[in-house]
């Protein structure tokens, strides 16, 4: 491949994989079973990114392993009704066409593990989306570094990635022991905890002690990992007695923690709620749930809450297209749409051109979404529990401290 025997597109890909392996002193390459490519939204790629992809596709590049995409900048089916411009839609579609020409499935979601691409324990991957990377490593026990857009695409074309970082056992030990001494229950609590820990952990590996295993369901763990990957660069964490690498198989086996790990105590989530909730007494002009993309269970719970209501504030639930289809089959989509809400696919409020859509104040239950909103889409963010967000959608008013 490196000599160009498989064509120019493959040569370029192998050059990138070899360059990464050289920088990180990898001993060899490891086959990957799946690739998730980020950097899909035209809003972030721009014309230069689109041209780069078009050129690579024209050079005959083809992926060799199943490969899916992160969210794009729009819902490819509902973009007109949702207010996206025709110009943006055309440019975004050109990006998706370039990826498709390389054999990539345009499954535009940050939760590929919810739509049939759930890796097995120990699988090696090259995933780009930071929240998905965290979920794959931590909750599923697969192995992936946090790949950049070109790095992931190159790995897909080569079918291998350089074996360094989290592909190696020694780098999967915890560097930070987090002693949790406050209740962590709501999905937003997990996001708040992730926000606090990510700032300390940076690109280290946290090990959580003190979380109630009954609360640590996959939907909440996806919120935890997403927030840590946003406020820090955490790509792997362990939860004692919950995640697969933090479950000793013998009584003498030690937890996966480095001897010199730093220790922090978390005894309140208030600092996270204070920082992420701008609390400017604004009422949101959009309520957004589904960062990372919502699961069917999350959608079902929302449908039950809004059934028979008339929403005063628009509600967007972002979810993978396949999950939206399941929600339609289950009757949840109809209930949500009858209330005035929407299930939006292929995109999210951080990678979409939100300024163009006119949303200036967004309420969310996502620690990651609340963290990125001000910087990425210049929105004021209200951050609270799912109930707090749905109450805002129903009443049109944001209550900074929601109480029953
Ligand atoms: Fe997914 Fe967008 Fe959040 S890509 S994790 S919904 S910022």
Structure description:
The chain has 404 residues and is α/β, with parallel strands linked by helices. The chain is 40% helix and 15% strand. The protein has 15 helices and 15 strands. The strands form four sheets. The chain has a five-stranded parallel sheet with strand order 13-12-11-14-15, sandwiched between helices. Strands 4-3-2-5 form a four-stranded parallel sheet. Strand 2 (34-37), helix 2 (42-58) and strand 3 form a beta-alpha-beta unit. The model has no long low-confidence stretch (mean pLDDT 95).
Spatial shape: globular
Overall average residue pLDDT: 95
Strand order of the largest sheet: 13-12-11-14-15
Heteromolecules bound: FE3-S4 cluster
First-residue to last-residue Cα separation: 62 Å
Q: Give the number of DSSP strands.
A: 15
**Low-confidence parts lasting 5 or more residues at pLDDT below 50?**
none
- The chain-level structural class is alpha/beta
* Rg over CA atoms: 21 Å
Task: Please tally the helical runs, counting DSSP H or I stretches of 4 or more residues.
Answer: 15
- Summarize the amount of helix as a percent range: 25-40%
């Amino acid at each position: 491949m490196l000599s160009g025997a498989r064509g120019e597109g493959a040569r370029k890909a192998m050059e990138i994989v070899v360059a990464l392996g050289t920088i990180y002193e990898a001993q060899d390459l490891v086959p990957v079973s799946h690739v998730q490519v980020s950097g899909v939204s035209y809003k972030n790629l721009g014309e230069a990114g689109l041209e780069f992809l078009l050129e690579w596709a024209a050079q005959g590049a083809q992926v060799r392993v199943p490969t899916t995409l992160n969210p794009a900048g729009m819902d490819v089916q509902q973009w007109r009704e949702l207010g996206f411009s025709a110009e943006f839609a055309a440019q975004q579609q050109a990006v998706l066409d370039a990826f498709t020409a390389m054999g990539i499935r345009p499954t535009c979601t940050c939760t590929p593990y919810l739509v049939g691409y759930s890796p097995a324990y120990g699988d090696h991957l090259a995933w780009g989306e930071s929240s998905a990377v965290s979920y794959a490593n931590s909750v599923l026990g697969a192995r992936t570094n946090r790949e950049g857009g070109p790095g992931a695409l190159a790995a897909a074309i080569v079918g291998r990635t350089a074996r360094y970082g989290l592909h190696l056992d020694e780098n999967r030990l915890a560097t930070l022991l987090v002693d949790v001494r406050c209740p962590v229950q709501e999905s937003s609590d997990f996001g708040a905890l992730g926000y606090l820990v990510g700032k300390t952990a940076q690109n280290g590996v946290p090990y959580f002690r003190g979380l109630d295993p009954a609360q640590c369901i996959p939907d909440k763990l996806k919120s935890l990992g997403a927030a840590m990957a946003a406020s820090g660069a955490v790509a792997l964490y362990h939860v004692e007695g919950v995640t697969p690498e933090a479950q000793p198989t013998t009584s003498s086996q030690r937890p996966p923690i480095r001897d010199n790990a730093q220790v922090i105590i978390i005894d309140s989530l208030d600092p996270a709620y204070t920082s992420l909730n701008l609390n400017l007494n604004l009422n949101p002009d959009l309520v957004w749930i589904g960062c990372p993309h919502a699961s069917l269970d999350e959608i079902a719970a929302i449908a039950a809450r809004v059934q028979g209501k008339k929403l005063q504030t628009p509600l967007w639930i972002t979810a993978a297209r396949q999950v939206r289809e399941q929600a339609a089959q289950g009757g949840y989509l109809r209930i949500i749409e009858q209330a005035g809400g929407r299930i939006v696919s292929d995109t999210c409020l951080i990678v979409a051109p939100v300024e163009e859509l006119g949303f200036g104040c967004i309420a969310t239950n996502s620690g990651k979404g609340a963290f990125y909103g001000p910087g990425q889409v210049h929105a004021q963010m209200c951050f609270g529990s799912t109930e707090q967000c749905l109450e805002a959608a129903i009443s049109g008013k944001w209550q900074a401290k929601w109480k029953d």
